[in-house]
């Protein structure tokens, strides 16, 4: 970089004052400052772009390494599973002399099904009944019929 000290800056300022003149010097100084600012921003943008491209290349390399290692693990697991299934079939086939059913029917998983209308908790039913807490869901018509005033004869 250029080493410009205070004395050199004063000399440049004096020459500029003489050559340009005192009327135009502030405008020229503003223009030079704006151009230097644009140049610095341009250099900073170029540096940032270079850094981004280098990081992108590093990330691509890491991604390839992770994919390769995942593929290796998957292949080793498949090989181990195949060997286990073969050993299991050999062990089951040699110990059981009775014929087995070919397809064991396993029931499909069924979610227990939560009824969101009913509040389930640690409160006993007798306490809920005494205090009038609903323990069963009712339709709108059933609720109206329940709370309708009794007819007097």
Would you write up a description of this structure?
Residues 112-153 are annotated as: Disordered. Residues 112-133, 144-153 have a biased composition (Basic residues). It is a single-pass membrane protein. The chain has a domain at 6-89. It contains four helices and no strands. It has helices at residues 6-20, 25-95, 125-131, 140-147. The longest helix has 71 residues, at 25-95. The chain is flat, with a radius of gyration of 43 Å. The protein starts with 5 loop residues before the first helix and ends in a 6-residue tail after the last helix. 0% of the residues are buried.
Strand coverage percent? under 5%
The oligomeric state is single chain
Rg from alpha-carbon coordinates: 43 Å
Total strands: 0
Biased composition (Basic residues): 112-133, 144-153
Organism: Verminephrobacter aporrectodeae subsp. tuberculatae
Keywords: Cell inner membrane, Cell membrane, Membrane, Protein transport, Translocation, Transmembrane, Transmembrane helix, Transport
Family: Belongs to the TatB family.
């Amino acid at each position: 970089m250029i080493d410009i000290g205070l004395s050199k800056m004063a000399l440049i300022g004096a020459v500029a004052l003489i050559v340009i003149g005192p009327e135009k010097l502030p405008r020229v100084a503003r223009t030079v400052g704006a151009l230097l600012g644009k140049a610095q921003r341009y250099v900073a943008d170029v540096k940032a772009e270079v850094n981004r491209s280098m990081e992108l290349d590093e990330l691509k390399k890491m991604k390839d390494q992770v994919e390769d290692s995942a593929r290796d693990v998957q292949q080793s697991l498949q090989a181990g599973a195949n060997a286990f299934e073969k050993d299991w079939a050999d062990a089951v086939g040699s110990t059981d002399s009775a014929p087995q059913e070919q397809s064991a029917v396993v029931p499909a998983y069924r979610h227990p099904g939560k009824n969101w209308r009913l509040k389930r908790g640690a409160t006993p039913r007798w306490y809920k009944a005494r205090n009038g807490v609903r323990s069963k869901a009712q339709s709108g018509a059933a609720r109206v019929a329940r709370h309708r005033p009794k007819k007097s004869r």
